[in-house]
Amino acid sequence: MEKSNETFEVTYHISANSLSDAESVSEKIGVEQSVEMPLSALPGSAKKSLPETLLVSQIDDDRWKIVLSFPLQLVEGDANQFLNVLYGNISLYKGIKIVDISNSILENLFNGPSFGIEGIRNMAGIKKRPLSCTALKPVGLSPHELAERAYQFAMGGIDIIKDDHGLANQSSAGFKERVISCAEAIKRAKDKTGKRTLFFPNITTSAKDIFHNFELAIEAGADGVLVSPQLSGLSVLWDLAARAECPVMAHPAFSGAYVSSQNSGFTLDVFYGKLWRSMGADAIIYPNAGGRFPFSEDECLSLHKTCISDLCEFLQSFPVPAGGIQLSSIKKWIEFYGTETLFLVGGSLYTQKKGIKSAAEQFQKILVDYE
Amino acid sequence: MEKSNETFEVTYHISANSLSDAESVSEKIGVEQSVEMPLSALPGSAKKSLPETLLVSQIDDDRWKIVLSFPLQLVEGDANQFLNVLYGNISLYKGIKIVDISNSILENLFNGPSFGIEGIRNMAGIKKRPLSCTALKPVGLSPHELAERAYQFAMGGIDIIKDDHGLANQSSAGFKERVISCAEAIKRAKDKTGKRTLFFPNITTSAKDIFHNFELAIEAGADGVLVSPQLSGLSVLWDLAARAECPVMAHPAFSGAYVSSQNSGFTLDVFYGKLWRSMGADAIIYPNAGGRFPFSEDECLSLHKTCISDLCEFLQSFPVPAGGIQLSSIKKWIEFYGTETLFLVGGSLYTQKKGIKSAAEQFQKILVDYE
User: Fold this and answer.
1) Which among B248, B277, B272 has a CA at the least distance from the CA of B258?
2) Cβ contact (<8 Å) for B37 and A232?
3) Which residues of A touch B81 (CB under 8 A)?
4) Could you tell me how many CB contacts below 8 A there are between chain A and chain B?
5) By CB neighbour count within 10 A (0-12 exposed, 13-18 middle, 19+ buried), where does B5 fall?
6) Residue among A84, A172, A287 whose CB faces B73 most closely
């Protein structure tokens, strides 16, 4: 689909009643996302800013696939301006869904993950098998109580412990004290078991303060960080990736509006897979099918594939299915996704009768069969 | 609806089939947005983190209104964490729409606009009448061509000229050169006419670089700035407002996913009105009814009211209806909204046969009747 280095392509599914209606929607999108003015008043010297329709084809009674080719000069080195051309004003329309983006523009603007699957595997010392991850929670516990949970999980052998994305800087457990306590507890467990557990605290806050949190986390001994890019600002993701100091795990909080509508927004794999991987997420948490969130197995599998398949020579992002995975169904999901998967199991570990250390041991026991 | 200073309330419309179903959705939202774990495993010391359902009431066959009261301690001073509690994980659900937020939490976290309607009126020297605004475009023109357009608009008496939100740092008109040229052209017009036209260039870029753009803009003589908060990161909005150096006009690019679904996301007035005004937008551009975007007159009027009515003793934000307003319909919209309105007319001015200076004069002629 690549046309030349001077353009990039976006593929949409749109609502339309006929070929001419679909062509008209395509032209509207093109104008709205570039010159944003009536073509009758467009000066000749700005005609080069207009995208070109490459394809209009019917999918269904009232849905059409269209492909627009945009001049690269609309964007030129500014990833935020690319997001604007991609979905700025048309985010306010109904019935437009972005289903693909040409790799050329992702390659042009982004560098992908700095650690990726291989980097995280190396840090954790795990070659082939799927990895385990759990979430420290709930909000309201003291740093001591959270650290005790981290210790139990680490003693049970969990590969990665991340903070719940709702742990911020609450007075029940201030950011710095909490991160220091938990990192120390996890290190203490490692000294006993010899098994390394990685710690990814949640650093999400305003774009201005997040790098301060990042530095505190690294200083306290964090191995990676958790961030909700749609809360802190998407550019924070590529700025963190550019530092390349530790892996970044991305959380979908506040981003669901972009992917949860049938006929508008983005497909799950374009938004979290193509975009977030390109922007530098080393691990990508997503709402798994069959849990608390309304996404299908097909959507999730397609996203998983986009995280690990060839894309612009970017490193692979670890796909992290989450949101209600039961310990009892892990085997099923390994068969479904394969071993390049980082399973995030929270609630199901907390509800095991023999406690969380034993729950973590059960989790690991399932995974080691795949090494 | 305020319960105490220790809690804040959020009102939702949700999909449910019965009272017990609605109660169950309410509990799910409460758990998802706070402790995010099965209640059976919740330790006693974290029970204080759970929100409480204050109301469950039927609106329609399958839609219900619910009100949840959240402990303030979930948020404590971190506005990003407030956005997370408000709409973090439930952004991934279907059928949940946020229709109100209690003022107490907005007051607690935000300071509102630093200039507001009064500040912008003072700068423009206009007491009572509605204000005019237009957009410099299209992308692809040179700084000289854009500056010539700015000059013509200013000679015609436009009150505020903002950049098109698609003008970034393209090689056709690099940011710095473009802003300097346009600011200079507008000043030149003022020297001739004596009438002040305010210039709001678009500074939108990554969270890391936007303050650099901001400083360049101020240095070049900008009177205010245009920013797309959902592209740069919402926190950029309150950080810019906190500097209080010039008014900030907020543009809805990339934010439509939050407001364009009938049954999920936010109402137009809660998102742009309550949130963006609280976060510090001095002027709020929104997609007007009857233009290119699919919002109703009721939705737009309700948003307009939220911008100018009493809210936490915040200054008023100038409501800026846009997106296809015709010069010929300005009078109708003044009757509809009243005079506390900043009308953004772009395309319709560019298509007037006698040129843009004459179009601007026509625009002003309509408005001066309301002084």
Assistant:
1) B272
2) no
3) 166, 168-170, 204-205
4) 308
5) exposed
6) A172
Q: What is the pLDDT of residue A3?
A: 43
Within chain A, which residues score under 70 in pLDDT?
A: 1-5
User: pLDDT, tens digit, for every residue of B90-116?
Assistant: 999 999 999 999 999 999 999 999 999
Containing A126, the helix (H) or strand (E) segment is: none
The alpha-carbon gap from B121 to the nearest alpha carbon of chain A, in Å, equals: 28
Q: Hey, of A254, A261, A349, which one would you mutate to test binding to chain B, going by the most B CBs within 10 A of its CB? A: A254
Asked if B42's CB is within 8 angstroms of A260's CB, the reply is no
CB–CB contact B80 A231 (8 Å): yes
Helix ranges, chain B (H): 19-32, 79-87, 103-109, 116-124, 143-155, 175-193, 210-220, 229-232, 234-243, 268, 277-279, 297-308, 330-337, 347-350, 356-368
Distance of CA B267 to the CA centre of its chain: 13
Nearest chain B alpha carbon to A92? B256
Closest alpha carbon within chain B to A347:
B37
Q: How is residue A164 written in tokens?
A: 């719940």
pLDDT at B1 over 80: no
Going by C-beta distance under 8 Å and a sequence separation of 6 or more, which residues neighbour residue A318? A116, A117, A120, A131, A282, A283, A284, A307, A340, A341, A342
Tens of pLDDT, residue by residue over B192-216, are: 999 999 999 999 999 999 999 999 9
Residues in chain B, how many?
A: 371
In 3-state terms, what secondary structure has residue B116?
A: helix
Strand-pairing partners, residue A24, are: none
Note whether A89 contacts B43, CB cutoff 8 Å: no
- φ, ψ for residue A301 (rounded to 5)? -65, -40
CB contact under 8 A, A139 and B264: no
Whether residue A175 contacts residue A219, with contact meaning beta carbons closer than 8 Å, is answered with no
Cα of A121 to nearest chain B Cα, Å = 28
Burial of residue A354, with CB atoms counted within 10 A of its CB: 0-12 exposed, 13-18 middle, 19 or more buried: exposed
> The complex's ipTM?
0.96
CB B346 within 8 A of CB B310: no
The tokens for B322 are 């846009």
DSSP for A55-121, please give it: EEEE-SSSEEEEEEEEEGGGTTT-HHHHHHHHHTGGGGSSSEEEEEE-HHHHHHH----SSHHHHHH
- Contact assignment for A34 to B139 by CB distance below 8 Å: yes
CB contact (8 A) between residue A205 and residue B81: yes
